Amino acid sequence: MRVAPLKHWSALLPLAMSLGGLALVLGHVASGGVREADEGTAAHLWQLFMALQLPLIALFAFIWLPRSPRSALAVVALLVAVVLANLAALIYFNL
What we know:
The protein is mainly alpha-helical. The chain has one domain (8-31, 38-93). It is built from 3 helices and no strands. It has helices spanning 9-30, 41-67, 69-93. The longest helix has 27 residues, at 41-67.
């Protein structure tokens, strides 16, 4: 039995990290988005989420591109789109 690439942990974990990062940005804006002298906890968590998911995306590509190139490229495109959504939200709200 084959597992679909999107249902594999190496795709779900970076997707969850990206969505968590987006939730952090939107939650910070919803709570007032007060500028601080130093970066707050939300900013540090967002940075960790974004940095730690890059090796996971590379691992996913290494595992799944040889097995199932078409569906793996679709998943990589989804992961890149969610990362770009994070960056767009960050730039839009100018945090």
